[in-house]
Amino acid sequence: MRYVSALILCLMPLACADPQPGSCECTAAEVCVEGQCLPANRCPDLSCPVGHVCEDGACISELGCATDSDCDGGRCVEGGCYAVECTEGDEETISCPRCGTTTRICRDRVWLTPNPCQDQGECEAGAEEEGPCSMGARVCDDTCVWGPWEGRGEACEAGTSEDEACGACGARTRSCDEACMWGDWTECDEEAGCEAGTTETQPCGSDQGLCVAGTQTRTCGEDCVFGEWAACQGSTEPTDEICGDGLDQDCDGQDLEVPDEYEPNGSCAAAYYLGDDPNPGNPVDFYPNFHNTGDRDDYFFFTFQDSPRSDLLEDITISLQLPPGHKSQLFLYRDRAACMADRPVRSSFRSNDGGDFEFIVHYEDPNADETGNWYLRVRRVEGTTCEPSRRFIMRVQ
Questions:
Q1: What pTM was computed for the model?
Q2: What pLDDT, in 10s, does the model give residues 302-333?
Q3: Could you list the residue range(s) of the whole structural domain that residue 359 is in?
Q4: Which CATH number do you get for residue 359?
């Protein structure tokens, strides 16, 4: 058997010039078999058949041989029987340490040395390891990965430290002490104005008048700084004020009112005096207005001087020009008492041409002295305005 052992010194799929011991060009891990360098250790993973033993890495017959027929289906090499390991050209994947895998190829019915192991894990499955600082032990699981340390809770490696994010883009640190235990976290530092991703909401707009308040939001960015406020949502915004309609469109807390220069003149007693006996050469021409929805009646009075001549009749003519969309009515009273009793001698009529005019024409009674203070009431029917857009022209002729 010494002769066979010497053959193990040559193993490589290179040609051997001489199959004698020490005469082939094989490595120390190979053996020269029939002119070929083959692996010397070919049976650690093999179960040799009955009547064979594993010697120097190969299954050989306990009996000597002269030809392959002496080896019961095996091969006779230098007087020894070797088991047939594989079929020429076969390739198979086999396991290797730490859950790895490798491949090997069959040459001349013998498996060649496997390729280097691939995809190995951290440890050998089932292995155990004692940790430092009495951390306890850990066991390598079936996937060749270390399991957790058991026996000390949250242990660590002495002298190490770790950081974590906190607050608004801040950070804090803790260190592992000599007993392999984590210390307390430090105070959170480098905090900015807000925590990234958070949002703030605030009311916006006005809730006065016709306005309705809404809400707007802003979001904290990755730099821990709030962005701009978004547009106001769900609000009713101010609009231009409509003067005198009793509503607060511009949401300043009040309805706009611009009383004219004749206010207050909302009653017979508070009537505004227009002057003495207006005539064609000196008519009364003025521009009053209704400045709010509560301003319903405006009162004026003037002095009429009746002529003593019976052949000279004088008429009182009053015209009122109205802005579009407005309606008013005029009432003429003989004196203050008639005004307060609401007994007009004349009321206005609308112009026949469809224009925005109201007229009163009072014809003098030749049999009566009509000298005195005459009263005029202007009643708002529709529309208000803060602009002096109504024009009165009053004359006696």
A1: 0.41
A2: 888 776 665 566 777 888 777 777 788 889 99
A3: 272-396
A4: 2.60.120.380
